[in-house]
Here is the input.
Amino acid sequence: MLIVETVGKIRRAYFVQGMLCELLEENEKRLPRERLTLIRLFEELRDLGYEGGYDAVRRYGRS
Here is the structure.
């Protein structure tokens, strides 16, 4: 049985991962000088409620 906390974690992961894809796609469209580094993308995700670590963002961003 899923508890409310688990459902919340799943929903956050889904929406944050979706946002991470969007942020990466938007970042790729920018000129190289204007692109955000992965640490800046991580900081933006954290501001949006992401609770994961930088290493997960870095691995996903590099793939």
